[in-house]
Design goal:
alpha+beta; five-stranded mixed sheet; 15 strands
């Protein structure tokens, strides 16, 4: 059923993406609410999430949905993890770099993932054990073997500024080793770009499950490695993620891990707090 799940996610993402594009011409009139410091939601975010929920519910009424804007509904081993507009800040400023992200977790394991960029009409899809694709063309991670030639994506932990000291040290350590950085403001697309080889690696701190779920499966199914910043597999719980091809993930971790704080280590293995990540 996994491919059927990918098809459902892709169609739901496409519908939400078309709605988001429709409203780009009237951004100044869209009501925006401040959820927390440095965190905003618009009426378009909510409308897109409802489109996704309605479409998934049409096919699987018994499945649970965990969405950024409406939280979790339902009690099931099948959990759809939804970010209706990843990169809301970009979207509201007219920056054409945002995406719709939908992942499916079954009994705690990610099985399907879709990241859709409606501006470029790029649909990134993955199904566990069946590979990752960009508009039906198979994707592979970069073949880069040396960090010195790598372009790596990252983002400042602007929602969790207490992580900034550790992040600065990580950034300084990585800056000495890589060719360049990119900071585009949409985690799901950063991961999708690692999966298709446009970027050679990515790390970020303090994310939520809906930021990472679909994109991480893309990387894994494109032949890459995803881990938390301590080298474990609890990134979906901790919110601290590192993704790269096999040849680069070890030197990236070697640069980052010495600067992981004790509080961050304690976070690994804990379930995510939707209020604090």
């Amino acid at each position: 059923m996994t491919n059927a799940h990918v098809n459902i996610a892709a169609e739901a993402a496409h519908r939400a993406g078309q709605l988001a594009v429709k409203y780009r011409s009237r951004l100044e009139s869209i009501p925006v609410e401040r959820k927390a410091r440095h965190d905003y939601v618009s009426d378009v975010d909510r409308a897109c999430e409802q489109v996704i929920r309605d479409y998934i519910g049409k096919h699987h009424r018994d499945h649970a949905i965990l969405g950024e804007e409406c939280g979790r509904t339902g009690d099931s081993d099948h959990v759809w993890i939804v970010d209706p507009i990843d990169g809301t800040s970009n979207y509201l400023r007219g920056i054409p770099h945002f995406a719709i992200s939908i992942g499916l977790q079954i009994k705690g394991r990610l099985e399907a993932g879709v990241v859709y960029d409606p501006v470029r009409e790029e649909m990134f899809t993955a199904s566990r054990g069946q590979g990752a694709f960009l508009n039906s063309q198979r994707m592979r991670v970069s073949g880069r073997k040396e960090l010195a030639a790598a372009v790596v994506a990252t983002a400042f932990p602007f929602r969790k500024r207490r992580l900034l000291p550790a992040y600065r040290d990580m950034f300084d350590a990585m800056f000495e080793k890589v060719e360049d950085f990119r900071r585009a403001g949409t985690a799901s697309l950063d991961l999708a770009y690692v999966a298709c080889g446009r970027l050679d690696g990515y790390w970020e701190l303090g994310l939520k499950p809906w930021d990472m779920a679909a994109g991480a499966l893309l990387v894994q199914e494109a032949g890459g490695v995803v881990m938390d910043v301590t080298g474990g597999d609890q990134w979906l719980d901790s919110g601290h993620i590192l993704a790269a091809p096999f040849k680069l993930v070890t030197p990236m971790r070697a640069a980052i891990e010495p600067h992981v704080s004790e509080a961050m280590r304690a976070r690994v293995g804990r379930k995510p707090d939707t209020a604090d990540g």
